[in-house]
Amino acid sequence: xxxxxxxxxxxxxxxxxxxxxxxxxxxxxxxxxxxxxxxxxxxxxxxxxxxxxxxxxxxxxxxxxxxxxxxxxxxxxxxxxxxxxxxxxxxxxxxxxxxxxxxxxxxxxxxxxxxxxxxxxxxxxxxxxxxxx
Length: 133
Known about the structure:
Keywords: Membrane, Transmembrane, Transmembrane helix. The protein has helices at 5-42, 51-79, 82-120. It is mainly alpha-helical.
């Protein structure tokens, strides 16, 4: 049985709603964390990693571009033409690239934090996985 364009519109609409919710969660968490970092920097006792600011910047940028790609996806889902497909695809690829950069910084921060704490623990002490050392 062939899948027509009207059956695919429902599936893509559902996936776009899920994508929009996930990007809004990313924007909310990144902006809240960015606010916490700014508050800690103003009180001169920031104990985080230097990759945190870059990670939060890329996460916010990726979230905003992701929301714009979802909007372009909704426009494409409504019109379903070749003209709107190019716009939706290009913004989705840019959004994916910036989000991948943000997740790369997260991975770097977690790995750096783990090795910093593991190396700082004296022999025989439990190696805790917290970055507040």
